[in-house]
Amino acid sequence: MNDFPYKFISDISKKEVVHRKPIYSVHKWFSRKTDSLIRGILLSLMNKNVEKSFYLNNEMLLKNKIVLDPFFGGGTIPINVLRMGGKIVGYDINPVSWFITKCELESVEIEELKKTFNKIELEVGKEISNYYKIKNENGELCDVIYLFRSKKTKCSKCGKEIKIFPTYRLTNIKRKNFINYTICKNCGSLIKSNDEIVTCKNCGIKFNSFLGNYKRGKVTCECGNIFNLRDQKDVENEIIAIEYYDNKERKIKIPDNDDIKHFSEKFNIDFDFIPNQKIPYGDETKRLFNHNYFYWKDMFYESQLYFHSLLLKNIKEIRNVKIREQFLCLFSNFLNSNNAFCSFQKDYNKSEPLFGDHHFAPIVISVENNMWGAKVGSGTFKKFFQNYIKAKEFNYNIFEKNYNKNEKIFLEKEKINAIFAKNFEDLKDKNTFLICNSSKNMKELPDESIDYIITDPPYFSSINYSELSEFFYVWQRILLNNEYIYFKNDSLKKDKEIVVNKSRNYKKDDYIKELKHVFLEGRRVLKNNSYMVLTYNNNSIDGWVSIIIPIIESGFKIIKTYPVDIEKNSGLIDNIRNKMNFNLIIVCQKTLFELKEIKFQQFLKKVKKEILKNIYYKKSISYSDKVVIIMGKIFEVYSEYSKVYLNKSLINIEEIIKLYYEKYLDELIYE
């Protein structure tokens, strides 16, 4: 896998990461890699000219080849292996990941999906749709787009009720002739103005529309008292504004008495279709406890719980198992945009789902979508279904986009159609073997049975997959707990997840040890002289040390690394110095090799020489991205010269990386 065209793949990936292929709208997953990256790797492994072959049909490229992905996550690698005619063996310990990928890979009758949707619309959709209606000033019924909700509490000193606002500006759209909305901090009236300092026509108060009474978890009362919101036990929410669709126009109003009465309606919820589990304490979920969320159902408004239960109950009644599971997957993804953690993008006038990033973020101003769907607005069941249809159509209508020409190139011979195997022997006649279990013991696979390993291992401590995905798991298991053993437990098992986590006391040494087990198993099942290709990024000494040690100690040699610009608008949240856009492709070979000796000063020179060959290095890229390139070259040189001496003392890779961070990174980057 020499001369991988990382610039060509980067140019596609950094655009594709914003406009992903339709198939990935089946369900949210965390930090998926792009199709273009995996497609490029597969073409390169098969000695194809990547740039010439990228936009051509490659349906036979991997014929009779078996690819292993020990951490298949959101399914990007399995999807691309099937497209190119290969067979995929995938491991993931997370049942949510397993279920999502299963639904992505299997083909389904589009007309049957549409027929089922129409039935759900008749039986449930009309009731949901009727709920999200209000009367305009002429008494005509209009569709609600969003209900704006604010948390409220009582001042811990004076006892006055306070509605909580990080900013009083409701919208901040910078569009010609658009006048923005602000909520009056005194009387709650609606003010239309683009000015920063506004005056309320109703009560006459003048104030800064951008400066609210809430900042960094603390509320400031008019009496001067400042207190932590998390200390308040009587926090409620209230609808403060309604956006609705009236005669082809979006309008916002303050709820009147009829609106308040209507949306205060109590619901008879069927709790058999609502998760009753407590939220487990963890590195990510502790944020929820800090804001008094203790059960998963606490993360939803009562109206959302009621309509979610109606939908789930209806989905359970679908007789066709494949169709039922596809609708369950659709419903599960729908939860991401219909909960009490959905914020409002003021600049774009639309809602933002819970997992816009890879963490739980309790908010004080949220939006409740019209759950079934108006003519405009995001996050509705109708729109999720429309996107789901496009996703499943993609299985048989695959395309790549040439961004230079702004055109789709359909690859009519490539298909995604999983025929699931029950065991490895089944792969003689089938093409997909997904195992929901740890890849630390691949007992299902014979020695030297795998042609290539391609995977995206967990990024040290960056994303706690199980803590995040349990939000979906507790809903999915309501229908799946009697269907699959993976969904029997009330909570996701997290003890086997290879992610550094303080709450589980899972440390760097545990990560290295467990990842080494996976790579040792990979080495056992991989054919001789073949390749294992990883994608990885991090911005810490421990993160880099923790990937190279298990690679080397499991008997792989790093023969080449390539930086790929893939994280535009979605960089990891734990970056220290500035945003990281690059991922590192790490190409490893299962081979026997002799350890060579080298002095550290010579090591430095070799690394620098290799760095300067990289076409990105002299360009205007971030500090963090240059670190990715440097680490890649350190890995390559160390893999060739694993006996490195400094002042006649042997130093290991951890000491080398620490030396670079402490002394040589700035010198290399700023020279």
TrEMBL record:
It comes from the Bacteria. One of its GO terms (molecular function) is nucleic acid binding. The keyword Transferase applies. GO terms for biological process: methylation. The keyword Plastid does not apply. Keywords: Methyltransferase, Transferase. This is DNA methylase. It comes from Tepiditoga spiralis.
